[in-house]
Amino acid sequence: MNPHLKQQMYFTLFRLTGLVSFGILILILIYIINLGAGVISFNFLTSMWANRDITTGGIYPAIVGTFYLGVGVAFFSVPVGIACAIYLNEYAGHSLVIRMIRLAIRNLAGVPSIVYGLFGLVVFVQMLQLGTSIIAASLTLSGMTVPWVITSSEEALKTVPQSFRDGALALGATKWQAVRGNVLPYAASGMITGSIIGLARAMGETAPIIVVGATFYMRGLPDSPFDKFMALPYHLFILATQHVHPQAQAYAAGTALVLVALIFSMTFVAMFVRYRFRKRKDW
Amino acid sequence: MLEDEEIILESVDLNIWFGSNQAIKDVDLKIAKNNITAIIGPSGCGKSTFLRALNRMNDVIPICSTEGEVRYQGKNIYSPDEDVVELRKKVGMVFQKPNPFPKSIYENIAYGPKIHGIKNKSKLDAIVEDTLKAAALWEEIEDRLHASAMGLSGGQQQRLCIARAMAVKPEIILMDEPCSALDPISTAKIEDLMIELKKDYTVVIVTHNMMQAARVSDYTAYFLLGELIEYEVTSYLFEYPKDKRTEDYITGRFG
Questions:
Q1: How many Å apart are CA A19 and CA A183, to the nearest integer?
Q2: Cα dist. A18→A5, A6, A21, A260, B201 in Å?
């Protein structure tokens, strides 16, 4: 076959795959907007959930619950993940133990989320007696998010040229001074964006939180980290599969819309951080 | 002659490996205080590795291992009780590719003094000004001290890196092919600066450029395949090389 024709054929094929993934996103959006936009109202976003007649209440407690969860996961997973990435990339070297740790982290990222849920139930809920609660769920989701934060933070650290470290070391800086002053500031945006994306994924998780504390209906908002909570993905799951109200499907889609908007806005924040940093970066 | 000089730095039976690959073989070399010592040799002869051994910058390369001694003011810097941070404060380094930090010119110079505990603003101001003047850079950049160092030309960046090394008041400045990425005019400026530096510092420079070694240095060492072939007063080495291999190299028959 004519090589030019061949090239055209392949690139057309590749372009199609790009269009397909874009198309899937658009279809999902059309579907949930079409089905769910009708239920979105000020009342829907700001009222307590009314379980008898779901049309009179709102998903405010689920939004709050998911927000609390996000704060909890950020609190636990981001510092641990970043610290671990700094250790691995800047200090650890290449010994056998370190290689095992790296392998473990890669594998951790691939563990199914429901398995994390089970782990959280045994360790946080039962062993540490945190009960089914926001804090148990945050810790469980953090376990899932940490490998993500580690991996993206390590990538961010790798993009900082070795010459920044060498320059500082040659002036008599300690390793920590070199990392603190000449590496972290330039890796920060990558670490932040990676963490936000990891966080967004955690906030969309359903399976693990079912096991460790999410509930479909509460009278009020949680008062403490040791309370149960409502959460958007779980709420949506119950509405879509188990609720008998004739409007349940529409309300599930409305909830999905709110969840997706939340996740998208986090992604946009991440993109914005990255964009701001790129503009300032002059190396 | 070397016998009449005060020796500030000296390698004794120095051997360096990268994994199983030996980069430096039994090198004994004495560096004379307040002189410029040039290290020349073809690519891959180990000259940069040797230089980096002098302030233990090879430590950052995981597969690099070192045997033998480097004595700074008589004390072996590879002994277990050596404080590497303190050593590098005294034995600074300028790299092949200018590596200013992506901070302001001011912050580049102030970085070293700051990490060594100087916080007083007027003190730092004075150090920045004095150092930039000593590095003959002040007049070119005094009106943009707070602009990013990345906006300087390559030659200015390299002089800034030399100034940055000077700002922590080292005794020795190691330079690893500092002009190899620069044009001839920038190179000439750095060579002038090196000769100026000799009054206060000891300079060891690795260079590809034999003419540069001949122009600026007092002593020259010729390395080949990790071995020190010849070490002499620069003018002797270039005019009366004792070793056939040195002669081949400096006359351009090889390398």
A1: 38
A2: 20, 19, 5, 21, 61
- The CATH code that applies to domain A61-280 is 1.10.3720.10
User: Mean per-residue pLDDT for B166-187?
Assistant: 93
What is the pLDDT, as a whole number, of residue A247? Answer: 85
Q: What are the structure tokens assigned to B92, written together?
A: 């600074």
Contact indicator for A162, A243 with CB cutoff of 8 Å: no
CA atoms within 13 A on the CB side of B165: 33
Strands B172-176 and B202-206, sheet pairing: parallel
Whole-angstrom Cα distance, residue B196 to residue A144?
A: 59
pLDDT in tens, A193-207: 999 999 999 999 999
CA gap B128, B134 in Å, rounded: 10
Where is average pLDDT lowest: A7-16, A80-89, A126-135, B48-57?
A126-135
Asked if A172 and B62 come within 8 Å (Cβ–Cβ), the reply is no
Q: pLDDT digits over B213-230, tens only? A: 999 999 999 999 999 999
**What is the SS3 assignment for B62?**
coil
CATH assignment of the domain containing B67: 3.40.50.300
How large is the ipTM? Answer: 0.92
B115/A contact by beta carbon, under 8 A: yes
pLDDT of residue B255: 53
Q: Where are the domains of chain A?
A: 61-280
Please judge whether A181 and B148 are an interchain contact, meaning their C-beta atoms are less than 8 angstroms apart: no
Q: Does A172 touch chain B (CB under 8 A)?
A: yes
- For residue B85, what pLDDT is reported? 94
- Contact call for residues A108 and A175 (beta carbons, < 8 A): no
What pTM was estimated for this model as a whole? 0.87
Cβ(B169)–Cβ(B88) below 8 Å: no
State which residues form the domain around B181.
2-97+171-250
